Amino acid sequence: MASKRSRERGLAVKMRDVAAACDVSLGTVSLILNGAPLARYFSPATTERVKKAAQRLGYRPNATARSLRSRRSHAVGVMFFDITDPFCTPVLRGIESALFDASYVPIVTDARNEPPRFERYLEMMLERQVEGLIVVANWLFVDLAILGDLARRNVPTVIVGWEDESGVVSSVMVDNEAGVRLAMEHLYLLGHERIAFIRGPKSLIDSAPRWSGIQKFARGAGREIDSRLVVDLPDHFETDLGFDNAYRLTKELISRGRAFTALVAFDDLTAFGAIRALHESGIKVPEQCSVVGFDDVAPSAQLTPPLTTVRQPLGRMGNMASSIVMDGIRAVQEKRIPAVVRHRLIPDLAIRGSTQRAPAKKRTG
Amino acid sequence: MASKRSRERGLAVKMRDVAAACDVSLGTVSLILNGAPLARYFSPATTERVKKAAQRLGYRPNATARSLRSRRSHAVGVMFFDITDPFCTPVLRGIESALFDASYVPIVTDARNEPPRFERYLEMMLERQVEGLIVVANWLFVDLAILGDLARRNVPTVIVGWEDESGVVSSVMVDNEAGVRLAMEHLYLLGHERIAFIRGPKSLIDSAPRWSGIQKFARGAGREIDSRLVVDLPDHFETDLGFDNAYRLTKELISRGRAFTALVAFDDLTAFGAIRALHESGIKVPEQCSVVGFDDVAPSAQLTPPLTTVRQPLGRMGNMASSIVMDGIRAVQEKRIPAVVRHRLIPDLAIRGSTQRAPAKKRTG
DNA sequence: TTGTATGCGTTATCAA
DNA sequence: TTGATAACGCATACAA
At a CB cut-off of 8 Å and minimum separation 6, what does A131 contact? Predict the structure, then answer.
C-alpha cells in the first residue's frame, strides 16, 4: 500500500496525496477535511471518499503550513520567572486546562530570574508567532514595560501574580491584603498578642502588599506590631534560599529573647524554615508557637503538623489567565482591541494543625 | 518612519521589507541575516547595510515560514503523564536547560493520566512537527507501543522514568534497585532489624523494581522481611492520594501491634503520610522510628525532621533526555538511524534527620 | 458542485 | 558578488 510505504520512509502524506488518491482536487480535500462552510455543497459521496482516504492514508495536517497560511499559530507562550517555585505547577495546570479545551498548545519557558534569558525567550516566542502570552511572575527582576509593548502589538498578554500599575497589561493575582487579613484575624481570635513576622524579600512582588496589609489590619484592630519581632528575608534569586534564610532568621528572632506565641511567615517555604528553627530550639508548634504561611503549596498539607496557610486559588488563576488570553486572541482576530482586565482573587484560609489557641501568657523565646 | 508605522499596525516587517529598504534582493537579505556560508561573498558594505536596516526596521524572522521551508520546527514535545507530581519540575528544568542551549523550544503537555488526553496531545505534537519527543512517565497507564511507532517515524523519542523492554525507544531512569539498596544498607548499619514497608501501587512504574530490589538485598544480607510489616498502596491515579493512603496504611500497620523501628516508604510523599501517622500515634521520628523515602523531592529537605531519602538526579535526568533527543534529531537530519540509548542513573542517599540508630529492642507499635 | 491559481515568509537553486 | 525564481503544505478567492 502506498500509504504505508510513504509513512515508513518518513514522508508525511499531505493533502495532495489524499487528493490524488480520490481523484479530486487539492481544494476539495482542504474544504472537506476542515469542515469548511462551503464543504456542505459537496456530494456526500465525495465527502465520504475523501474522508476515508485521508483516514486510510494516515493524513495528518501540517500545522506549520496551516499557521503560515492562516496566520494563526494556535500556540501561546507561557513564561515562568522561576518554575522551581512550587507555586507554579498548579498555575501551569490551570493554564493548560483552558488551552487544551481550545486546542491551543503552550510553549513553556523558564526565565530562571535571569533577564537575558527572559528576553531571549520573549524573542523566541515572538518569532514563533505565539498568539498570546502568559507570564507567571513572582520576582520583580524585569521591567514590565517590555510586556506592555507586546500587549499593544497584538499579542494579548496577561501576568499572573503581578499587577501592572500602568494598566496596559492584564493581570490575575491574589488579593494579598485580604489574605493576610484572614491570617491575622485567625491569630487574633485565637488570642495571640505577641506575633512575630518574617517579611518577604524586597525583590519579591508580594512582599510589600502583604506587609502593608498586615500593618493596616493591625492598626484597624487597635493592635501594635512590635518591631523587635519583625525580621526581613534578604534579597536573593533562589527559591531554596527562602527556607534557609527563614530558618536562620527565626533562630535570630528566638535569640532576641522577646516572647512571641505566633509567627506569620511570608510564605509557606518560609514557614517551613521557621518551623524547623522553632523545633530545634525546643519550641513546640503549635503548642508553644503557632505558625501561619501563605500560598498553600502542595507540601503544606503534608507537613507534620500540617500548615495553616492562606490558600491561593492557583489553578483557577492559571485558568483565568488562559481565558483572558483567549478572549484577547479572539478580539485581535476580530480586529477589536483586546480589553485589559485585572482580576484580584480573594484567597481563603486553610486552617490546619500549625495554629492553635495562644498559651497562657509567658515567655516563649 | 515606515518601520514604526507598520509595527503599530501590527504588520510584521519581513525580509522583503528589509530588502526593499536596502535596495537589494530578498535572497541577499536571507543569506546575510542567516550568516550563511555564501554570505561572505557579499561586500562588507552591503552586509552592513542589510544588518543595520533589519535592526532599524525591527525585523524578526518568522519561525513558521522558516519551519515550513526548512522542515525543521526547532520544537520538541514534552509530555508529562502527571505534572502534579513534584518529581516533574526538576526534570522539566533539566530538559529546558539543554533545549535552550540548542535554541529549541519545548511544547509542554500534561496527560493527567488520561489516555485520551495523551493521544490527543500526541496527535497535536505530531501535527506541529515536533522534531523530538520526551515523555516523562511515572504511571503505567498507557501502552508504550505507540511511542515505539513514533520513534520509528523519525521522531526521536525518549522516556524518562520508564524503561521500554522491547528496546525500541530510548530511556533515562534511576536505578531503583541500587536506590533501595542504599536505603536498606543505611538502615541495617543503623541496627534496624524490624523494618516496615509501604509498597507502591501496581500501576506506578517504580513499584515493582523497588520492591524486588528490597527483597534481593534483604536476601543477600541474610535478613528476613516480615510480611506482617508490609502494606500496599492501592491503585489510583492521583498524586495526592499517596499521602492519604500512606497515612491510613501506617495507622493500620501500627494497630497490628507488631513492633518496627524503621519504615521504608515507597516514595517521599508516602513517607510524609507515614510520618504524620506515626506522629499522631505518639511514635517519635526518628527517636522511635526511622523513616526513609525515595525521590528527594523539594519539600523533603524542608520537613521537620528532614527526610532521609534516595536522591534521584532529576535535573540530570531531564538534561540527559534532552541530549538524547538532540542527538537523535541530528541523526535524523543526517539521514542516519537514531541510536536507542538506555541510561540507568545511580542515585545516592540523602541522609538527613528522619533516620537514626535503632533504639534498644522493645516494642514500638 | 468542483477545480485552478495565488500567496503566506522563508530558504535554496539557479543564472547572471 | 548579487538577483530571479521555485518550492515548502495549506487555505481561499475566483472560475468553471
Answer: A72, A73, A74, A75, A76, A104, A155, A156, A329, A332
The pTM for the full model equals 0.94
Interface probe with A: pick from B6, B11, B64, B136, most Cβ of A within 10 Å: B64
Q: Which of B31, B50, B67 is the last residue of a domain?
A: B67
The residue-averaged pLDDT of A332-360 equals 95
Q: Which of A14, A60, A110, A302 to mutate to test the interface with B (most CBs of B within 10 A)?
A: A302
**Do A305 and A182 share a structural domain?**
yes
Q: What is the 3-class SS of A315-330, one letter each residue?
A: HHHHHHHHHHHHHHHH
B129/A contact by beta carbon, under 8 A: yes
Q: What is the per-residue pLDDT across A57-78, written as a single tens digit (0 to 9) for each?
A: 999 999 999 999 999 999 999 9
The strand order across the sheet containing A348-350 reads A230-232, A195-199, A262-264, A290-295, A308-311, A348-350
Please check whether residue A293 lies inside any domain of the structure.
yes
> Within 13 Å, how many C-alpha atoms sit on residue A265's CB side?
34
Same domain, residue pair B59 and B99? no
What is the rounded distance in angstroms from the CA atom of residue A151 to the CA atom of residue A166?
A: 13
- B62-121 tens-digit pLDDT: 999 999 999 999 999 999 999 999 999 999 999 999 999 999 999 999 999 999 999 999
With an 8 Å Cβ cutoff, are A124 and B105 in contact? Answer: yes
Burial of B306 (0-12, 13-18, 19+ CB in 10 A): middle
Query: Residue B207 pLDDT more than 90?
Result: yes
Total number of domains in chain B: 3
Q: Determine the pLDDT at residue B364.
A: 43
Is residue A365, in this structure, part of any structural domain at all? no
User: Nearest nucleotide to B60 by CA–C1' distance?
Assistant: C9
